[in-house]
Automatic annotation (TrEMBL):
It comes from Odocoileus virginianus. Residues 1290-1299 have a biased composition (Basic and acidic residues). PANTHER family: GUANINE NUCLEOTIDE EXCHANGE FACTOR SUBUNIT RIC1 (PTHR22746:SF10), RAB6A-GEF COMPLEX PARTNER PROTEIN 1 (PTHR22746). Gene3D superfamilies: YVTN repeat-like/Quinoprotein amine dehydrogenase. Its main location: membrane. This is Protein RIC1 homolog. It comes from the Eukaryota. The gene is RIC1.
Length: 1315
């Protein structure tokens, strides 16, 4: 039989004839009849070992001759539990026993066998001669259901598949020769509840060619992949592999035979025959009945083949034609889009440890911020003659990658996005890289075999020069190099003669482009290593059992202190022997320095898959940087942590200087970020695409049943595991040092919370009493950190109520913790404690604490919290047990969508009370109000209930304080944010809190609060034409059109409900979504009012009137062309222009202007005329003063108030004369008004004419002035709070230009609808 090269290759460019597949001739040489069915065939060096069903083992030479050797009868081979009791071994003893499956293990020199009765064992020749007398077997007592076996030569493991569905992995004890159970591969009920015990017997077990993973399949189908020591990487019995997108269960993929492809990038599978349960649906017949060949593609970590990458803090995965790396900043800044090329990959699966990491320069966000990989396609020119990729390496900065295929190597720069290949193809084809490769600064260090010279070499190539041997530094070596690693300026190699050699590497002084390598030290390890192939990795580290305190020379702590050798999963450490005399060689050349010898090796740990260390030093994080990290497969991770005494005290003699701490993590670790206390990994993620094909089409083939697989990056915090392990071992001081060094990490609060939560869950739910509970220790530990209060409450909120008593018994009474939060001014955390108190204490206690918090929140202007507290206090009062959410949910009412439809309903006639508002308006409110605001109930029928009275009393008290302290800005904010009934309250308080006691002080305070500039004296002001009334109003209108907001006067309409006006406190008013309000009585003639030309009304334009509102509103967006022609043709002289610019300069921020006008309107409504006067003075608009006088004349006003206004204005006049001459011109303008005021004061009607009204015990005045004030413009009047629920104001986005605003009024979400 002859095969030629496949036709597909002809199409590739640069096709070379010699690349065809070689011709294969198969011919029959000989037939051997062994007279029984053959059960298993194994090639053993030059021989073929055949097991037949009659219980015989035949050893056949490849020539086909039996060499006269008899077949060995298994019944004659002695078996025992171990080799020490060898002669006392029992025989198998019964006749029909035979070998069902066997595999030869070269590194153990023997056979792992499975017998037909389910027993398993290991047969080894006692001496080199292979005869029955010289064979001996060992077996484990407890395996009686073995089905198949596979052997891992690198780790000396035998994996026996069992009928129960688990795989038992055994190793041989070096001293006794007994079989020891290393670990089991089995599905857990937790992860696979419906299938874990229904998989059937294990059918096939196969180790990958690089011995880093094993693939297992079962009788009833399914495929799973595990790391060497039992970490599960993938399993097709759950998730998208097992269920279709509509939730129906798929038949698991049944596998008859499978084999790994080159380098473990492919798994070839022959699938089973059809499906077993064909009766479930008619469409199962469409599943292909004949066996199909499937090909699964895998990517693996560079660590599996090039373990020197473990001190690199970069993730690198290699596929057969591409590399995946996590983008560091270097590649990230140059390449913002990270391509995710998974188009043609089937089950993309990492194979085991992929290394990942950060550098000092990298920020966490670049490492963890996205889940994509940076995919680098390997140069097709290089792959064409050198497929598949065997090794890959990335440099420290993550900017350059080198790859090695069959021959030669190539490297790639992520910055230039270019590959560099050998210019001379014969040089490339003449070298085979044997021991991996590593980067050292800008150099690539590799160990290779020179084919033409038949010489093992160590070569160093410079990245920046051309790839050519002329630029390489070559050092010859005695034996083949198996492993290579770089530590600082040293190269360590492990060779096939079991020796370790250390080289120093340095840039040569004669030229910048070359590096020199010199031998430093050789160490023979042949006494300790039975077979060189067993060494998984070799690293040079600065880790030692002495952690630098007791060393005689401090700099030695950072030297290459020890060699770490992973020997088939056993981590062996050899330290430098410092017991001899220490010579200080300050002057001698360091290259001639004699290096210290190494001590005999010590075993540090078992079942180790990977080791991570770093050569960096950081004084602050010594614990993490001087630790040694191990990944142990299914057993999780271990860290060998240094312990430091505090303040460099002398360490206790009994305290060991390092401690090994085990911990479990949920991901497969591929790299450790040392300073950031993170483990990075990758995980197989699946996407179903079966919905693209209809179920009954013939397309439902195996590949459609299989989901699309992508590899995603993952990361996990491990700090809480380590802290907890230290606390368990009473090493609290060490835990504290470690935690303090990491306290600056962004997720440190989360670490504390995780630790508290895990300990609490374990101890509070444990069935047996815990003799020495850890929770009090953990609680005490967390109190050392300022985040203690948050940590406890967040943990409690995420834990079920049943465990709270246990938690607070350890951390302290929640009442005390609540009070601590208040003292620390941490109100949000206090609010969370309140929810806990509400569940644990009687309502009276929670009300008392809620009141405390409510008052503090009012004081600090935390409006969202205030709204929550109002709701909370009500919930307690009405006996509702619902808990308010701890954090406000941010929702915004739609600003543009429904803005204008509410015009019709918005202004309710002011004489209506809330009860008479039509129901439709209430339903409107319900659908549109937002969850965080005061609930509709509050202002409606039950407003007389005690709870609401209680809340109102607190609100009134706060408002009174704000007024007394002249904090008008805060008052407006408070009223707007909490929907406080400001007008009705002011009416009641008109003669008490709402009196202005000191006009000058109030004026100063308002200037400061609203950032309003004090006026300056303009030269031309006295003779200005703008003193003329008509001009004055026009000037004002002009100013308004120049301001950003044409609807400047919007808020002053009497018919607008309070909450709409309060919108100016919540966000800037902008023309985009403005709703223009007119009083309900203006409904019919609304359009006419809008279109009336501005100058028609001339002088009578009063700031507070509705007509003024509608007129100014007609200038939409400051569009001057819409203004009446009389206005646009005004001729402005130079002096008038100067005057306008002066006016503009003396105005404060636009937002303040809006807010002041809003306040003016509120006070006007409430009849607090003294406040109106103060605001009129600040705005410097005589029309306001004029309007107040009109009110005073047309209504009966309290004489005391008039007197107050009069004396106040005199005081202002005196103050202006002495301290603030800028006010003088304005005061002169309003002088005539003031004289009018004096006259009114004299003929004032006596207060007895008013009807007294009592609220509580205090007589109060009602205010008839409101009706009269507005009778001319047709408005009714209602107290502020009784506005109908339909008033919904849509928010405009925050105007970014208002940087001057002092207080962020808009912190969160606002309920703008009040009912």
């Amino acid at each position: 039989m002859t095969t030629r090269g496949s036709p597909q290759m002809k199409g590739t460019p640069h096709f070379k004839e010699e690349q065809c597949a070689p011709a294969l001739n198969l011919e029959m040489r000989k037939i051997l009849d062994l007279q029984a069915p053959i059960m298993s065939l194994q090639s053993v060096l030059e021989d073929l070992l055949v097991a037949t069903s009659d219980g015989l083992l035949h050893l056949i030479h490849w020539e086909g001759m039996t060499n006269g050797r008899k077949a060995i009868n298994l019944c004659t081979v002695p078996f025992s539990v171990d080799l020490q009791s060898s002669r006392a071994g029992s025989f198998l003893g019964f006749a029909d026993v035979h070998i069902k499956d066997m595999e030869y293990c070269a590194t153990l020199d023997g056979f792992a066998v499975v017998f037909n009765d389910g027993k398993v064992g290991f047969i080894t020749p006692v001496s080199s001669r292979f005869t029955a007398e010289q064979l001996h077997g060992v077996w484990p007592q407890d395996v009686v259901d073995g089905t198949c076996v596979a052997v891992n030569n690198k780790y000396r493991l035998m994996a026996f598949g069992c009928a129960s569905g688990s795989v038992q992995v055994y190793t041989i004890d070096n001293t006794t020769g007994a079989m020891l159970l290393s670990h089991k591969l089995e599905l857990t009920a937790k992860q696979y509840p419906d299938i874990w015990n229904k998989t059937g017997a294990v059918k096939l077990v196969r180790w990958s060619p690089d011995n880093s993973v094993v693939v297992v399949t079962w009788e009833y189908g399914g495929l799973s992949l595990w790391s060497v020591f039992g970490a599960q990487l993938i399993c097709t019995l759950g998730g998208d592999f097992a269920y279709r997108s509509d939730g129906t269960k798929k038949d698991p993929l049944k596998i008859n035979s499978m084999s790994w492809g080159a380098e473990g990038y492919h798994l070839w599978v022959i699938s089973g025959f059809g499906s077993q349960n064909t009766e479930n649906e008619s469409d199962s017949k469409s599943i292909v009945k004949q066996p199909g060949i499937l090909l699964f593609q895998f990517i693996k970590s560079a660590l599996t083949v090039n373990p020197c990458m473990s001190n690199q803090e970069q993730v690198l995965l290699q596929g057969e034609d591409r590399l995946y790396l996590n983008c560091g900043e270097a590649s990230q800044s140059q390449n913002p889009r990270s391509s995710s090329a998974h188009s043609d990959h089937k089950t993309h699966r990492e194979k085991s440890p992929f290394a990942d990491g950060s550098l000092e320069s990298q920020s966490l966000s670049t490492l963890l911020g996205h889940r994509h990989w940076h995919v680098v396609q390997i140069s097709s020119t290089y792959l064409e003659s050198n497929w598949p990729i065997r090794f890959s390496a990335i440099d420290k900065l993550g900017q350059n990658i080198a790859v090695v295929g069959k021959f030669g190597f190539a490297h790639y720069s992520l910055l230039t996005k270019k590959w560099k290949l050998f210019g001379n193809i014969t040089q490339e084809q003449n070298m085979i890289v044997t021991g991996g490769l590593a980067w050292w600064n800008d150099f690539i260090v590799l160990a290779c075999y020179n084919i033409s010279d038949r010489q093992e070499e160590l070569r160093v190539y410079l990245r920046t020069s051309n790839l050519d041997n002329a630029f390489a530094h070559v050092t010859k070596t005695q034996a083949e190099t198996l492993l290579l690693s770089v530590f600082r300026d040293m190269v360590i190699v492990f060779r096939a003669d079991c020796s370790i050699c250390l080289y120093s590497i340095e840039r040569k002084s004669d030229g910048p482009n070359t590096a020199g390598i010199q031998v430093l030290q050789e160490v023979s390890m042949s006494r300790y290593i039975p077979h060189p192939f067993l060494v998984v990795s070799v690293t040079l580290t600065s880790v030692s059992t002495e952690n630098g305190i007791t060393l005689k020379m401090p700099q030695q702590a950072r030297d290459a202190e020890s060699i770490m050798l992973n020997l088939a999963g056993q981590l062996i450490m050899m330290q430098r022997d410092r017991s001899g005399p220490q010579i200080r060689e300050k002057d001698s050349n360091p290259n001639q320095r004699k290096l210290l010898p190494f001590c005999p090796p010590v075993v540090l740990a078992q079942s180790v898959e990977n080791v991570w260390t770093t050569c960096r030093a950081n004084k602050q994080k010594r614990h993490l940087l001087e630790a040694l990290w191990l990944s142990c497969g299914g057993a999780g991770m271990k860290v060998w942590l240094p312990l430091f005494p505090r303040d460099h005290r002398k360490p206790h003699s009994f305290l060991s200087q390092r401690i090994m701490l085990p911990f479990h993590i949920n991901i497969y670790p591929l790299a450790v970020l040392f300073e950031d206390a993170l483990v990075l990994g990758a995980v197989n993620d699946t996407l179903l695409y079966d919905s693209l094909y209809s179920r009954n089409s013939a397309r439902e083939q195996l590949e459609v049943l299989f989901p699309f697989c992508v590899v995603e990056r993952t990361s996990q915090i491990y700090l809480h595991h380590i802290l907890r392990q230290l606390l368990v071992r009473n090493l609290g001081e060490q835990a504290l040092l470690l935690a303090q060094s990491c306290a600056a990490l962004p997720y440190f609060p989360h670490v504390l919370e995780l630790m508290l939560h895990e300990v609490l869950e374990e101890e509070a739910t444990s069935r047996e009493p815990i003799p020495d509970p850890l929770l009090p220790t953990v609680a005490k530990f967390i109190t050392e950190f300022p985040l203690f209060l948050q940590t406890v409450v967040h943990c409690a909120r995420k834990t079920e109520y049943a465990l709270w008593n246990y938690l607070f018994a350890a951390v302290g009474n929640p009442k005390d913790l609540f009070e601590e939060c208040l003292m620390a001014q941490d109100l949000d955390t206090a609010a969370s404690y309140l929810i806990i108190l509400q569940n644990m204490e009687v309502p009276a206690v929670s009300r008392q604490h809620a009141t405390l918090l409510f008052n503090t929140a009012l004081e600090q202007g935390k409006w969202d919290l205030c709204r929550h507290m109002i709701r909370f206090l009500k919930a307690i009062g009405s006996g509702e047990s619902e808990t308010p959410p701890s954090t406000p949910t941010a929702q915004e009412p739609s600003s543009s969508g429904g803005g204008f439809e509410f015009f019709r309903n918005r202004s309710i006639s002011l004489s209506q009370s809330a009860e008479s508002v039509p129901a439709s308006k209430f339903s409107l409110q319900k659908t549109l109000s937002m969850p965080s605001g005061p609930s509709g109930k509050r202002w409606s029928k039950d407003s007389d209930c005690a709870e609401n009275m209680y809340i109102d009393m607190m609100l009134w008290r706060h408002a009174r304080r704000l007024l007394e302290e002249v904090r008008l800005k805060d008052l407006g904010c408070f009223a707007a944010q909490l929907g406080f009934e400001l007008i009705s309250w002011l009416c009641r308080e008109r003669t008490r809190a709402a009196r202005v006691d000191n006009f000058v002080l109030a004026l100063k305070r308002l200037h400061k609060d609203f950032l309003w500039p004090l006026p300056i004296t303009p030269a031309a002001s006295v003779s200005s034409p703008f003193r003329n009334g008509k001009y004055r109003t026009v000037g004002e209108q002009l100013l308004k059109s120049q301001s950003t907001d044409p609807f400047l006067n919007l808020e002053i309409d009497a018919g607008v409900s309070n909450v709409q006006r309060s919108q100016s406190w919540l966000s800037n008013i902008g023309p985009a979504h403005q709703e223009i309000d007119t009083a309900s009585s203006h409904g019919p003639q609304m359009q006419d009012a809008f279109l009336s030309p501005l100058s028609n009304k001339g002088d009578e334009c009063s700031i507070g009137s509705a007509t003024d509102l509608t007129e100014s509103s007609s200038m939409v967006d400051g569009d001057w062309t819409m203004v009446d022609e009389n206005f646009s043709t005004l001729s402005l002289t130079q002096s008038e222009l100067e005057h306008i610019s002066m006016e503009l300069a003396s105005k404060g921020p636009h937002k303040s202007q809006v807010q002041l006008r809003y306040l003016l309107h509120i006070f006007m409504e409430a009849g607090c005329l003294d406040w109106c006067i103060v605001i009129g003075l600040i705005l410097r608009e005589s029309s306001i003063i004029n309007q107040i006088l009109v009110i005073i004349q047309s209504s009966e006003v309290d004489g005391e108030m008039l007197q107050n206004i009069k004396t106040g204005l005199h005081a202002v006049d005196r103050w202006a004369s002495t301290d603030c001459p800028g006010y003088k011109p304005f005061l002169n303008i309003i002088k005539p008004h003031l004289q009018k005021l004096s006259e009114i004061t004299e003929e004032q009607v006596q207060p007895e004419a008013f009807q007294p009204m009592t609220v509580g015990k205090t007589p109060e005045q009602t205010s008839p002035r409101a009706e009269e004030n507005r009778s001319s413009s047709g408005h009714g009047s209602i107290p502020q709070g009784e506005v109908g629920g339909s008033s919904l104001v849509s928010r405009k986005e925050e105007d970014t230009t208002r940087a001057e605003e002092e207080e962020p009024f808009q912190d969160g979400t606002y309920d703008c609808s009040v009912s």
